[in-house]
Design a protein that fits this description.
- The chain has a domain at 5-121: D-Maltodextrin-Binding Protein, domain 2 (3-Layer(aba) Sandwich).
- It is elongated.
- 41% of the residues lie in helices and 9% in strands.
- The chain is an alpha/beta fold and 211 residues long.
- Helix 2 links the parallel strand 2 (27-32) and strand 3.
Amino acid sequence: MKFKTLALSCAVALGLGTTAANAADKEIRFDGFPDFDSSLKVLLPDFEKETGIKVDYLMNNHGDHHTKLTTNLATGSGAGDVIVVDVEKIGPFVGSGGLVNLSENYGADKYEERFAPYAWAQGKGADGDMYGIPVDLGPGVMYYRTDVFEKAGIDVEEAIKDWDSYIAAGEKLKEQNVQLIASAADVAQAIIFTTVPEGEGLYFDKDGNPV
């Protein structure tokens, strides 16, 4: 295989990054991690029928996949033609020179309108060209107590209209000593830490107040 193509989307990247490049041998490899294989089992029959290209895939666990990929791209061999990469790895991998410029080689920019702007931007290199196609939006939600917001005089629609308003609302709540939880992961940790013996104060002081 002559190149490595960064892929954040199994369906879109297979269509953009491989058909033209490997039409001669009619076989490519997709590297990823579970549970992408479940998606491939659904998508590949139609893709292979439509393009005549056979797709083999190699799945490693998340950590091993990225460790192996780092070595593959550094040495210029061993990576699949289409690969799945976490967003934070895009910059380093583009910098290593092992990824194909999808804008120049496959006209990827024409697909921009199909994606949320922030998701599309995550696939770009420092040169502004596309090196990866987003696989998901990674949406997030905010849980809040209406009574706390009302007491603080905060309008929710105003608070979430942009990041500046969101931060300002948080600062206003902190001024009123409202305890904030930044991530759902913190809640998961709170459940885990219920096994900690009483009196060791991870979240509350001895008087029951949030630390």
